[in-house]
Amino acid sequence: xxxxxxxxxxVYAALGSFLECSGQYLNAKHHLEKAIHLKPDSNIxxxxxxxxxxxxxxxxxxxxxxxVQKAQIEGLQKLEHLELDTKxxxxxxxxxxxxxxxxxxxxxxxxxxxxxxxxxxxxxxxxMTTEPWTLDHIKQKAGDCMVTVKTPVQESxxxxxxxxxxxxxxxxxxxxxxxxxxxxxxxxxxxxPVHCPALAQELTIPKYFANxxxxxxAPGTLYKDxxxxxxxxxxGLTSELHVDAFGSNFWMALFEGKKRWVFFSxxxxxxxxxxxxxxxxPVFDVDLSAPDLNTHPLLQLTEPMExxxxxxxxxxxPAGCPHRVENLEKSLAISANFVDLSNLELxxxxxYVNSIMDQRAQDLYLQITNQDFVYDMxxxxxxxxxxxxxxxxYSQNEKYDIKFLNDEHKKHVCLPGxxxxxxxxxxxxxxxxxxxxxxxxxxxxxxxxxxLHA
Length: 454
Ligand SMILES: O=C(O)CCC(=O)C(=O)O
Ligand SMILES: [Fe+2]
Fold this sequence. Notes:
alpha+beta, Methane Monooxygenase Hydroxylase, Chain G, domain 1, Jelly Rolls, 3 domains, seven-stranded mixed beta sheet, five-stranded mixed beta sheet, 12 helices, binds 2-oxoglutaric acid
């Protein structure tokens, strides 16, 4: 039987949901908070519980939209102050390129991951497979596997505006790849561990990503076996602007073809007009192929970066960065999302919200927040063969010298900009500072305390 409070809660929630749809986020928040107060999760009836969860999830979405709106209002004020004569976008800055031979693990971690800076690593991809990967090799190893290809849909609210299309064999997909009628078929994010373990076994995971926390969870846990995944695209196909899910970091290694990548920093996200429909992963209203600065003036405040990824190169994309990818040529690539100390806090936040509606996300959240979870990273780690990567075990003999900051350490830390200041190196301290709006990292002289400078 419905209790009076339950009925009132549903009315508040319905109103909240209506207000959310009409963009009145502050009012929506008020009503949803009332609904949740009247109908807490402890309610014993299952369907009530489901509704209460819906309300909580919707409230998080509304809170995100309030933050976006606030940043947009401030952005518009900033634009007014600037009093620009003509509307122009800031030119794209090139992403840095560095050879794998000049990039020790610690430099990658402190200079790029912790400062949320994309980077292209050269001379690395040929070391990542036991034999060279070509389209022919993929056909040989995975030809009989079934794949559901993706296709771009302009009005889609799905991730990267790509939706499931036809199911076929890999051989057929490859056979038709150059045909005009296949120009919209993308073999996209096709999990190798799930669909073709024979190919996965040929992989070596570069040291930079070998501390992946997703490999420290129990068998069967969400995302543990999702990546690396395969991407094969005909020339001209685009993955529209998106942010990777659950606060994950990302890398992509390119074997064949060319891909143009465009990135923004996470703080630029509100200036790209994100829309949250049925998910916490927004679609963006701006069209970067033909930016319209009259409709989307805030685009002028963004600081875009770009690179054309070449065969043999690997790209690192930090968590939270919106990006768009254009296949300039027919391409063959693999990629993975991963978690380590650089994005752990963001991942926890995002998984917490995803947990409300998704049991597997909750299971992962509980594992990575358990006090026994090993958060430490081994800075001496080497590239790992597939079986080593998949069978991670904590070993006393290895040096796990990059530590999660404990509360005592945190007291000494002031938090600069985007950097969440949660990491300390046992042997040396890195200093963080801001230069031209960028967070930079440098080795600090040996001192006992970690000082982070905003
Ligand atoms: O290469 C692409 O098309 C997009 C890859 C990407 O951004 C992703 O999988 O998240
Ligand atoms: Fe992505």
